Write the C-alpha cells for this entry.
Amino acid sequence: MAAAPRTPHDRFGLSWRPEYSAAILCHTDEIDLVEIIADNFLRDASAARSLRTLSAQLPLSLHSVSLGLASSLPAEARRLENLARLFDVCAPESWSEHFAFVRAGGHEIGHLAAPPRNDETIDGTIRNIRLAARIVGCAPVLENIATLIRPPLSTYGEWRWMDHILNAASCDLLLDLHNLLANCANCGDDPEQTLRAAPLDRVQTVHLSGGKWINDPRDLKRRHLLDDHLHDVPDSVYALLATLAELCPNPLTVIIERDGNFPAFEIMRDQLRRARNAVASGRARRLQHHRREACLEHC
Amino acid sequence: MSTADIETFLARLYTDADLRARFLESPQEILARESLSAQQRSALAAIDPSELILAADSYRHKRVSRRR
C-alpha cells in the first residue's frame, strides 16, 4: 500500500499594514507570518530597522513590486542592491516579485504590467532572476499578475510562459488566486480548469484578495473584474483555495492582502479563519482520494 | 522592433495620455511611425481599445496613489 501523504504544515498570514500592526501583534497565536511590501521600507532606515524587531516576533517575507523582472530589458542592479540591504537588515525567510514589467525606455508605468509572453521575455526574465538571486542572495518566489489588457505579441499562454521561466530559474510560484480569477473573468476562461492547468508543483505561497466589477468604457454589456485589494476575499476565491489544497502536495503559505478601505481587524481574522477552513477541506478531500486509491490498490 | 522596443512602446502607450488618445483614434497612423514588422503592426493594431483604456486608467490611479 502506498504511504499516506503527510499532512503538510500549511501557514496563514496577513500583509503588514500600519492600520493593523497593533492588532497583528496581539494575535500572533493566529497569524503564522506577515508579508512586508519591501518598497515601503527601502528609503527609511529606521523603519527598516523596526522590521528587525518585528522579525523577532513573527516570520517575515518581503514582497517587492518595482523591480520589473519579467522583461526582455535588464533589471536595474541599483534597485536590487537596495533590496539586498533591506534583506540583510530584516532577515526575512523569503522574498517575492511578479511576472511583470513596470518600466521601459525611461517610462515608469507605475504598476505591474504584463509583458509580451514570448521567447525574448522568457530569456530576459531568467537573466533578471539570476541577477536578482546573485545580488540578494536567494531567488525570488514569483507571482502571477492580474492584467486588464491581454499582452500583445504573446506566443505563449500565461501558464506555459511562467512554467518555462520557473523551471529554468528554479523558482517557486506565488499563486494569487484573485489574479487568476480576474484574468479568467476578463478573458472568458473557467477559473477551476485554469487552476488545474497551473504549475501546481511549484506553488509554495498563495495570495488572497478582493476586487470589484467595473463597466466597460465602450460596451454597456461588458464588465471587467478589477483586482484592487480594497475588498474582502470573495467566496469563489475560497473555493479555488480548497481546490488548490486538494491538488497541491506542497505546504502552502496563504497570505491575505489588503491595501485600503480597511475593515475592522475582526473581518480580517474572519477571512483568515475562512482560508484555514478552505485549506482544511481541500486537504481532507486529498486524503480521501488517497485512501480510496490505496484501498483499490489493496483490494 | 525587438521585444524591448515593444515593451517601451507599450509603456509609452500606458503612460502618455495624448499618444493613447491618438492611438485609439487611429492606431495605424501611430503604428506607421514605428519600425514594426507587418505581424507586429497587426498585433498592436488589434489591441482591444477598452482593455487599453482600463489598463492605462488603473496604472495612472496607482501612480497617483503612490505619490500621495
